[in-house]
Structure formats: C-alpha cells, structure tokens
C-alpha cells in the first residue's frame, strides 16, 4: 500500500460517510460533479480565445495564443477567422465515466492545459450514457478528431498535427481514437497521446488494484459497476479494452496513473504494452493519490506537480 499524501488524506476524511455515486440517479450525479468542480478545482481563467465550435460534435476551443486572439477579430464575411500559422491542436476528452462530465466541469482544466502547452485545445462534449450507450462516445471522439484534423475554417488556423488527450473515461477515448486514426489516418497525423488514469480493460481480469482500492478511495467497485451499468460496454471490443489490442504503430504516449485507484493497474498494463510494442512512452504515477484528481487541483495542490511532469513529457514528444 502506498502512503497516502496529506492533502489526499484530508479530502478522503471529508468524503467519509458520503453516499456513493451508486446511490444516485444520473441527473443528480451529473449535477453533483458540476457543483463539486467549483470548490474543488482551480478557478476557470479563460484563454485569449474561447469559442464554441460547430463540428459534428459540440466542442469548445481554448486558444492561449495572443496572435490568435488578434486575428480572430478579423472575421470574413463567411464568418471564418483569418488563418494564422499552422500548428498542432490538442483534442481533449473529459472524464466522468462516460455518464457525467462535460465542458462545464472541465473548462478550467482545459484552459490550463492550453496555457501549459502553448497550444489550442478543443474540449469535446461527446454524448453520454445511458441516453447514448457504448459506443456513442467513441464514435463522437473519432468524428471530432477527424474534423479537427481536416482544418475547418472556423478554427481560425491551419492544423498540422493532433495531440489526443483525456482523463479517466476521456483517457480511454484518447487511446481508442489514437488506435482508430493509426488504422485509418486522418488528414494530419497524431503526434502524441496522453492518458490520465485511463480504464483500458473492461474484461474481468483480476488486476490487484481493483480489489485493493474497491472501497474508501473515492472511485469504488460499486461506483465502477454503476458507470458500467449505464454505459453497457462490450468488454471484448478493443475500444473498451484497448490494452488487449495491437499497439504497434501507435503515436508516442504519456500515461499518468493515480497510485490509490482501482484502475491504476490498467494504466500500468497499457504503458507496459506500449513498451512491448516498441512505442515511445513515458509512464508516470502520482503515488498516494486518488482517481479524478484533475478536477481537485485546489484541494489537492500536490497533484499540480504530477500534472506538470506529464505535460512536460508530452512537450518533449512534440
């Protein structure tokens, strides 16, 4: 057992005795995540450009570049901004177990990712279960990645590569989308991918972390069953269990796991499988930390260093 960090211990103490997500209706769970993001995460600081996009899936652009803000003011009659220099775009898929989460919960994090990397970020608002069960989110993720890769005029700049990233369920989407674009390339290449505490195996494999952290560490075994019941994934489909797929030819990856997390060992296994396939990968673990920490950067200040390390590793691949 890893030693629990002091700030994590405080949060777990605060949450002790709270009803689990498995006791809630979907609407309440969604509202609860939105309500908790404000007090738990760092405040949302908009980038110079923030714009909703009209692609195949709702999304929001966060562009940290001042030049983009200046040129976005020069709008053509067709409504498209003047095009600036080409560069990579980060396509980010939010976490929430495929049932909760969205732009409102992840906008502060997405804007900070944009500033930290110095790159525009497209935060994808994919469909959620149970209204849209598996594989709707995967279809949306791939469709949006291909649309961004095509360099639509409304972005306001040319695109010369993609970076796919996500946290939790979004990490799974980033991996599955990278696999899809490896097999059927988009208009520009995927330069790298980042998966933060991803679930990579929906089979009943006996990963030790599933039992070790089934109770008392925020994301519980009962909670995972609640998400799966609404999502209805196919464990044998490689989009649900990408660690079981062929990984040769994948873009360079950064995998960041949480040490006190039932999906920890799935992230470890995925990083190991990338190494075995000859894919450049940086594996990092936030020891002593629980799942969902990207939405708790205010109450878990220690994780900011873990995230900085992950994004530093990603920058090295770019």
TrEMBL record:
Q: Which GO terms describe its molecular function?
A: hydrolase activity
Q: Pfam families attached here?
A: Abhydrolase_3 (PF07859)
Keyword Hydrolase annotated: yes
Domain Alpha/beta hydrolase fold-3: where?
90-294
Q: Which UniProt keywords apply?
A: Hydrolase
The protein's superkingdom reads Bacteria
Q: Which SUPFAM superfamilies match?
A: alpha/beta-Hydrolases
Q: Which PANTHER family does the entry link to?
A: AB HYDROLASE SUPERFAMILY PROTEIN C4A8.06C, ALPHA_BETA HYDROLASE FOLD-3 DOMAIN-CONTAINING PROTEIN-RELATED
Protein's UniProt name: Acetylhydrolase
């Amino acid at each position: 057992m890893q030693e629990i960090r002091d700030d994590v211990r405080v949060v777990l103490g605060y949450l002790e005795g709270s009803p689990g997500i498995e006791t809630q209706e979907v609407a309440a769970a969604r509202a609860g995540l939105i309500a908790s993001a404000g007090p738990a995460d760092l405040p949302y600081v908009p980038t110079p450009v923030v714009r909703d996009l009209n692609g195949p899936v709702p999304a929001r652009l966060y562009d940290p570049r001042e030049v983009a803000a200046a040129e976005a003011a020069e709008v053509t009659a067709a409504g498209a901004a003047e095009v600036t220099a080409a560069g990579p775009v980060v396509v980010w898929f939010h976490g929430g177990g495929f049932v909760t989460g969205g732009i409102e919960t992840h906008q502060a994090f997405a804007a900070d990712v944009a500033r930290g990397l110095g790159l525009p970020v497209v935060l994808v608002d994919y469909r959620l279960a149970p209204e849209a069960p598996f594989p709707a989110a995967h279809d949306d993720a791939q469709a949006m990645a291909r649309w961004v890769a095509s360099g639509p005029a409304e972005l306001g700049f040319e695109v010369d590569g993609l970076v796919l990233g996500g946290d939790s369920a979004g990490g799974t989407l980033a991996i599955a989308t990278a696999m899809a674009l490896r097999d059927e390339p988009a208009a520009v290449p995927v330069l790298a991918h980042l998966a933060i505490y991803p679930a990579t195996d929906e089979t009943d494999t006996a990963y030790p972390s599933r039992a070790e952290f089934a109770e008392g560490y925020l994301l519980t075994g009962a909670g995972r069953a609640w998400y799966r019941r609404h999502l209805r994934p196919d464990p044998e489909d490689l989009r649900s269990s990408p660690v079981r797929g062929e990984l040769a030819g994948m873009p360079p990856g950064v995998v960041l796991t949480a040490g006190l997390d039932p999906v920890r060992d799935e992230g470890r296994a995925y990083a190991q499988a990338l190494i075995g396939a000859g894919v450049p990968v940086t594996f990092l673990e936030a020891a002593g930390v629980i799942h969902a920490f990207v939405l708790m950067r205010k109450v878990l200040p220690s994780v900011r260093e873990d995230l900085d390390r992950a994004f530093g590793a990603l920058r090295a691949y770019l």
